[in-house]
Design goal:
Pnp Oxidase, Chain A; alpha+beta; 174 residues
């Protein structure tokens, strides 16, 4: 789903690199999926009172990579900022796997809109979904103090080899 206030970006990189580039010859969607599945945490980027703010979150993405869920305590600045402004980004990377090999590090930014899940059945389903990936959150997601958020993804920006940027927009039939 493209949101009107988040247009397609013009990126000066080829849609798919040449086959001579061994690290990036694979299509971008499977690389994004592999990175998401291999990393348990993301930096959630938000804004509030004219300032940027980042926070670590444990996340789970749906199979089509069109949405993600995460949990936070209702008594946090993160919760307050998300209620005030729904524009967010999730940043995920594999830096810990390649501490001395910059050209092997991959990162991605997933942009979208965050929505607090208030419907009890939707909240329960999202809590079970998140706890399936992060079992240590099982009790927390059931608590009254927990706010569960769903991020509807608009696009992914995937960076590899430190400077190669490719954009991918997920669809429900991806």
């Amino acid at each position: 789903m493209n949101l009107p206030d988040e247009p397609f970006l013009e990126i000066d990189a080829p849609a798919e690199p040449s086959s001579s580039e061994s690290l990036t010859s694979e299509p971008v969607a499977p690389r994004i999926r592999r990175l998401i599945e291999s990393q348990p945490f993301a930096v959630l980027c938000m804004q509030g009172e004219g300032q940027p703010y980042g926070s670590l979150v444990a996340y789970a993405f749906d199979d089509a990579l069109t949405w993600a869920v995460f949990a936070t305590s209702k008594a946090t600045r993160k919760f307050k900022l998300l209620i005030e402004c729904d524009h967010v980004a999730l940043v995920i990377d594999n830096r810990p796997e390649f501490p001395e090999e910059l050209m092997k590090i991959e990162g991605l930014t997933a942009t979208g809109r965050a929505r607090l899940l208030e419907d009890p059945s939707e909240r329960d389903a999202a809590g079970r979904f998140l706890a399936a990936r992060h079992s240590y959150l099982r009790e927390f997601v059931r608590s009254e103090s927990c706010g569960l958020f769903r991020v509807d993804i608009v696009r992914f920006l995937h960076v590899s080899r430190f400077q190669e940027v490719r954009q991918w927009v997920p669809t429900n039939d991806s």
